[in-house]
User: Fold this.
Amino acid sequence: MSRNRIDGKDPKYPRDAKKAHVEGRVVLKATISESGNVEDLCVIQGPEMLQQAAFDAVKTWTYKLFLLNGQPREVKTQMNIDFTPQ
Assistant:
């Protein structure tokens, strides 16, 4: 999925989470609409201090259209957002 992303903000590591040494993976579930927009986004799991940052970034993402027999189709997917200190 990540190679099909064409636009949107990258997740920002929350300052409080970084300060508290919270890191890990946030897993989200979403539908990519026929127009390439992220819809029906929800958090499945991940550190609570990181969930909102992941959610806020992913909701801005847009994707190349997914085509089946030349027609755009919606796609249900899971996204993993990793937060590690640098």
Observations:
- The first strand starts at residue 5 and ends at 7.
